Amino acid sequence: MPPILQTRRITLNPLKSADSAAILKLRSNPEVMRYMDSDPCINLEDAEMFICRQNEANKENEGASWGIFLKDSAKVIGYAGFWRINHTHLRGELGYALDPDYWRSGLMTEALHCIARYGFKELGLHSIEANVNPNNSSSVALLLKLGFKLEAHFRENFSFEGVFHDSLIYSLLEEDLKTNNA
C-alpha cells in the first residue's frame, strides 16, 4: 500500500470502504464524469468496487492511488494516483477527480505535484502519462501547469457509449516537473 502523503493543505491517504459514500457522490456527479469516458457509480456497491479495484492495484504494486482529504479532515474531496504502472518501461498513468466545490483552488495541482514526486523518487518511474479528453480544457491546463508535454493526439481511438472520442496523451519526465511550494 502506498504511504500517507501530505502537502501544505491536503493529506493523500489510500481509500477505505468507509469512503464509499464520498466516492459515490463524486463518481455519480455529471460534472465530474463529463470527460471521464467511463461508467459513473450508480450505487454504494459501485463505489465500493471502485475502491476495491484501487486498493487491489495498490497491493499488487500495479498502481498507487490515494483519496484526497483536506488537511486534518476525514472528508474525501477527490482521488488521484497511478491507476496503472508499467514496470517494464517505468511509466505510470495518472487518474484523478475532484469535487467541483474545490475546482480552481489549486488543490489538484498540489496533489498531482506530490504524487509525481513520489512516483519519480519512490517508485523509480521514468515518465508519467495522462490520457485526456481533448474537450477537457481544465485538465489540459492543469497538466501543462505541472510541466507535462503533449505527446500524441489520437483521433477517434476510444469508444464510449457508442461514440468515438479523441485522446490526448501527455507525459512528464522528472526534469520537466515544475517546482511547487506544496
Description:
With 182 residues, the chain is of the alpha+beta class. It is 29% helix and 34% strand. The chain has 5 helices and 8 strands, in the order E-E-H-H-H-E-E-E-H-E-H-E-E. It has helices at residues 20-27, 30-33, 44-59, 107-121, 137-146, and strands at residues 5-6, 10-13, 64-70, 76-86, 91-98, 127-132, 149-160, 163-173. It has an 8-stranded mixed beta sheet with strand order 1-2-3-4-5-6-8-7, with helices on both faces. A hairpin with a 2-residue loop joins strand 7 and strand 8. Helix 1 (20-27) crosses helix 3 (44-59) and helix 4 crosses helix 5. The longest helix is centred in the N-terminal third of the chain and has 16 residues, at 44-59. 31% of the residues are buried. The model has no long low-confidence stretch (mean pLDDT 95).
| Quaternary structure classification | single chain
- Strands in their spatial order, largest beta sheet: 1-2-3-4-5-6-8-7
Spell out the helices and strands N to C. EEHHHEEEHEHEE
Number of separate strands:
8
By secondary-structure content and strand pairing, the structural class works out as alpha+beta
List strands and helices in order, with pairings.
Layout lengths: L4 E2 L3 E4 L6 H8 L2 H4 L10 H16 L4 E7 L5 E11 L4 E8 L8 H15 L5 E6 L4 H10 L2 E12 L2 E11 L9
Parallel strand pairs: 5-6
Antiparallel strand pairs: 1-2, 2-3, 3-4, 4-5, 6-8, 7-8
Helix pairs in contact: 1-3, 4-5
